[in-house]
Specification:
Largest sheet: none
Helix content: over 70%
Structural class: mainly alpha
Distance between the termini: 37 Å
Number of strands: 0
Radius of gyration: 19 Å
Shape: elongated
Strand content: under 5%
Number of helices: 7
């Protein structure tokens, strides 16, 4: 028996014995992969596409002002990068992580509701922190990207349980 086949046997035994842990590991890997994609898109938008809007105030909207969102560039960058990241995560988690076979239309609707709420939170939280960073003069690339990473990580508190137990279910075996 080769080293490679022994390793495969150990991995197979682990995944069978600890199925739930293995799903969380795959979810984490998928999240990390799609987070890299989201960070790249965010950086391109923040420092390229919307760079000229990073100091343009959103003063004509009382709702955004109330939420503490003051600059258009941060708001657009957070929103668009989050949509792209969550779309990629949906596909990867449905197909690879959970191998879901539940109704795809219902799963997509439930995922969309979760993502709308999460993106609303991320857009508010990210733009709010972006405003704080901008107003305090700490708007370096490192600080802004670190803030984006924090904002992206917080929703894991609700996205894993919702993905695992509500959205990407497997039909019960009969």
């Amino acid at each position: 028996m080769t080293q490679n086949s022994k390793f495969k046997e150990k991995v197979t035994a682990f995944t069978q014995k600890h199925g739930e842990i293995w799903k969380f590991i795959k979810f984490t890997f998928t999240g990390a992969s799609t987070s890299v994609l989201e960070m790249i898109v965010f950086a391109i938008l923040q420092y390229g596409v919307f760079k000229s809007l990073n100091e343009v105030p959103v003063t004509d909207n009382p709702v955004l002002a109330f939420l503490g969102i003051e600059y258009e560039g941060y708001m657009y960058s957070y929103f668009i990068s989050a949509v792209i990241g969550y779309a990629a995560a949906y596909i990867m988690n449905r197909k690879l992580t959970f191998k879901a076979d539940a109704n795809p239309v219902l799963s997509t609707i439930l995922y969309t509701i979760m993502v709308i709420c999460t993106i609303a939170f991320n857009t508010w939280f990210g733009a709010f922190l972006g405003t704080v960073i901008q107003n305090k003069g700490y708007d370096s690339v490192f600080i802004v990207m670190l803030t984006k990473l924090v904002v992206m990580t917080v929703p894991t508190l609700w996205t894993y349980p919702l993905n695992r137990f509500v959205i990407h279910r497997k039909k019960k075996e009969k």
